[in-house]
Amino acid sequence: NLASVVAATGNLQPVTTVQVGTQVSGIVEQVLVDFNSHVTAGQVIARIDKTLLISAVSSSRAQLERIEAEQRHAEAEYQRLSELHDQKMISDSEFNTAQYNRDAARAGVKSAKVDLERAERNLGYATITSPIDGIVYYDKATRGRFGDSTSMGESLRRNSSIMPNQVVMTIVQPRPMVIRASVPEEQLHWVRPNLK
To answer: CA-CA distance, 31 to 159, in Å (whole number)?
Structure first.
């Protein structure tokens, strides 16, 4: 029995890798994993200081309360002027102004609710979790270093700054793995799917 052998050099790589970052900027408060740590989906891997994000939620909530008060006033004023308009005691212009103020107040409430939802969502982004089960890997850099060539000198550590969409680490799933290899053209006829 003769065996056919295909000689090739290549790299063993995970099939699934996920780059992890955040959607908000801030100061890193905690890094809870290190290079080569095993993590599970949903596990907290880092936290950003929430002080400014909590203030933004409080400010948005107060803004919503103020605009809701303005809406109640505009609704009451519209109701009062509507009755006077029906009795022909005020002009169409005064009534139209009240109607405009009521509609603008309603739109203001909708806008303030969206701002509050955004602030609350941003607060949630301050907790960085692993999207998959896997192992922490720092991709193009090593041991606690992140990012592209311009930020290689910076490390992901407490009190460092991170920006939105900045990759801070990569999570890889160790199984399944794939070999990416270059096979000489003259040996390609021996290569088939599921070759062992």
So the answer is: 10
Helix, coil or strand: residue 45 = strand
CA distance 109 to 37: 46
Q: Which two tokens stand for residue 4?
A: 């056919």
Place of tokens 């290569």: 191
Instruction: Please state the φ and ψ torsions of residue 161, each to the nearest 5 degrees.
Output: -95, 140
Tell me which DSSP letter residue 144 carries: T
How far is Cα 121 from Cα 142, in angstroms, rounded to an integer?
31
Q: How many angstroms separate the first and last alpha carbons of the chain? A: 17
pLDDT of residue 195: 66
10-residue stretch averages of pLDDT, the chain, 196 residues long: 74 83 87 88 92 96 98 97 94 96 97 98 93 78 37 55 81 84 80 71
User: Degrees (nearest 5) of the Cα angle 128, 21, 161?
Assistant: 90
pTM of the complete model = 0.71
Whose structure tokens read 């193009």?
140
Peptide bond between residue 131 and the one before it cis (omega within 30 degrees of 0): no
Place of tokens 């790589």: 13
Distance CA 15, CA 134 (A): 12
The pLDDT value given to residue 175: 86
